[in-house]
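pls design
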C-alpha cells in the first residue's frame, strides 16, 4: 500500500497534467517537397500558412500552403523572396531582394505585386500586416541604423523608440498595436509594445 503523501502527490500531478493533455494537438510537419530548408512564418484565421524555403540550387523563395497545396511566391525580377505574413483577406506581405542586392517590402493582393519602400531607405523589410491593410516593418538609411515604420493608407510614419540606437517592428494586430524591440546605448536589446 502506498503512503497517503505519495497518493496525494499522484492525484495532484494527474490534475495538473490532465488539462495540458486535453488541449494538446498532434503536430504536423511542414516540408515543401524538394526543398532543403522550409520555414513557416505566418498563418491566418483560415489556416493558410506562409513562409520561405531554400531550393536545392540555394535560392530562397516564398510559399503559400493552402488546403494542403504549396504555391511558390516569387516577386518578378527578384533574386530572393521571403514571405512574412498573410491576412484573412489573403493579402500576402514580405520582402524581396533585387539583383542590385537591395531589400524591398512587397504586398501581393489579388495576384498583383506592389513594392513598398520607405523613402530614402537602403533597406526596407521585416513587414507584417493586419486586416486593415496597415504594414509594420523596418528600414535602414545610409548610416546603417534600423528604424521601425508604419505604412497606412499610402503614407509612411517612422517609429523610433526614444533615445534608442535602433528600433525594429515585428508585428501589428487588428487594433494597430505594434510590437518590436530597440537597442539602448549600453548595448542591451529590449522589447516594447
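designed seq:
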Amino acid at each position: 500500500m502506498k503512503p497517503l503523501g505519495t497518493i496525494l502527490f499522484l492525484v495532484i500531478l494527474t490534475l495538473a497534467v490532465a488539462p495540458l493533455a486535453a488541449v494538446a494537438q498532434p503536430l504536423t510537419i511542414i516540408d515543401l517537397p524538394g526543398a532543403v530548408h522550409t520555414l513557416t512564418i505566418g498563418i491566418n484565421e483560415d489556416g493558410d500558412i506562409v513562409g520561405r524555403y531554400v531550393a536545392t540550387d540555394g535560392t530562397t523563395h516564398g510559399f503559400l500552403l493552402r488546403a494542403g497545396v504549396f504555391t511558390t511566391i516569387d516577386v518578378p525580377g527578384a533574386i530572393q523572396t521571403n514571405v512574412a505574413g498573410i491576412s484573412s483577406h489573403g493579402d500576402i506581405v514580405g520582402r524581396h531582394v533585387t539583383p542590385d542586392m537591395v531589400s524591398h517590402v512587397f504586398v501581393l493582393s489579388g495576384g498583383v505585386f506592389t513594392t513598398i519602400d520607405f523613402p530614402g531607405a537602403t533597406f526596407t523589410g521585416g513587414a507584417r500586416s493586419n486586416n486593415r491593410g496597415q504594414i509594420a516593418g523596418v528600414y535602414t538609411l545610409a548610416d546603417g541604423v534600423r528604424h521601425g515604420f508604419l505604412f497606412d493608407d499610402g503614407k509612411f510614419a517612422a517609429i523610433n523608440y526614444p533615445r534608442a540606437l535602433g528600433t525594429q517592428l515585428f508585428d501589428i494586430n487588428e487594433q494597430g498595436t505594434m510590437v518590436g524591440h530597440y537597442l539602448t546605448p549600453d548595448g542591451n536589446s529590449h522589447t516594447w509594445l
